[in-house]
Structures are given as C-alpha cells and as structure tokens.
Amino acid sequence: MKDTKELTIMKFGQQDLINMDKQMCFALYNANKQFNHFYSEVLEQFNLTYPQYLVLSSLWDNNDAMTVRQLGQVARLDGGTLTPLLKRLENHGWVVRSKDPNDNRHVLISLSTYAIEQKCDIVNLIQTKLNHLNMTDQEYRERVQEVNDISHRLEQILTTF
User: Fold this and answer.
1) Where is the signal peptide (predicted)?
2) How far apart are CA 71 and CA 161, in angstroms?
3) Are 131 and 139 in contact (CB under 8 A)?
4) Fewer CB in 10 Å around end: N or C, the chain?
C-alpha cells in the first residue's frame, strides 16, 4: 500500500494557500532571485554570468570534455541558451571546442588551461560569500537535499501528467 501525504486547504487554511509569503513557490522563486543576485556579484569579478558558471561547474565536476548535449542536460540549459553561451566562453578563453574523434557530428567542450587555473579562486570566493549564510556544512547539505527533493518530485509530477 502506497503511503501518500496530502496537503489540504483545511489543514493549512485557505488564507495560507493564498498569501504569497506562505507559498512554497514564492519562497523558492524569491530564494532563486537572491541566489542569482548573490552569484552575479561574485562572478562579475571573473566576467562570468551565472549560466556560464553552471557550464564551467559542470565541466569541473566531469573532469573531462563533454558534448554540447551532455552539458545541456547536466546544466539544465537548452540549446538556444547554450550555443551562444559557449561561444562567449570560448571567445573569453574559458573553454575549448573540438570535434569528437569518435563522431565528427559532435562537438566536444573542454576546459581551457585558464578555466582550470581560475577554478580555485572562483570556488574560494564563493565559499567565502556562502559562509555569510551562517550555516554548518550539514545544514547546507540538508537544505540542498530538501530543494533537490522538491525539484525531483515536481519533475515526476510533470512527466506523469
């Protein structure tokens, strides 16, 4: 038997579901805006945007070249966003494009030497700024896991209906 949990207006009260400050969607939307602003301030020192950082972070995590499609899947960026973004990263010396030796139809994206050298500086600055959240490592990991769980549940709902 499946254990299901339900939210009802009766439990929360109709007003709680109407007030923006009590809605999860607004809380996540607002937190997203704040994080985008937070990262923008940090990344502007490196002349990077947040989506560009996501691509670099995906490549740093992978430790190897990735196809454009793989990058899009990992960073959750569509082709219309990713293609010009990669071109700008390449023009600024962050990434290198090359043909996939196994399949000439695919382009591989890899980190430039410059991007590898800048990783520590970027990560250290982000870490320094994140310390102002005044969270322990465990609290931080738990919050990330909670948001990932919500995202996963929403993804399941959207693919079901």
Assistant:
1) none
2) 27
3) no
4) N
Are the C-beta atoms of 125 and 45 separated by less than 8 Å? yes
Give pLDDT, residue 123.
96
Q: In this structure, what token pair is assigned to residue 112?
A: 């430039």
Query: Which letter does DSSP use for residue 104 in this model?
Result: E
pLDDT digits over 27-77, tens only?
A: 999 999 999 999 999 999 999 999 999 999 999 999 889 999 999 999 999
In 3-154, beta strands by DSSP E: 66-67, 95-100, 103-111
- Paired tokens of 51: 């989506």
Answer for the pair 59, 109: CB distance below 8 angstroms, yes or no. yes
| Nearest to 89, CA basis, from 68, 115, 67, 119 | 115
Locate 48 and state its tokens.
């990077």
Domains and CATH numbers, the chain: 9-160 (1.10.10.10)
Which one, of 150, 160, 136, 153, lies nearest residue 29 by Cα?
150
**Nearest alpha-carbon partner for 78 in 53, 56, 51, 60:** 51
Q: Find the mean pLDDT for residues 127-142.
A: 95
Q: Give Cβ neighbours of residue 56 (< 8 Å, ≥ 6 apart).
A: 48, 89, 94, 95, 111, 115, 119, 122
Spatial separation of the C-alpha atoms in residues 52 and 67, rounded to whole Å? 16
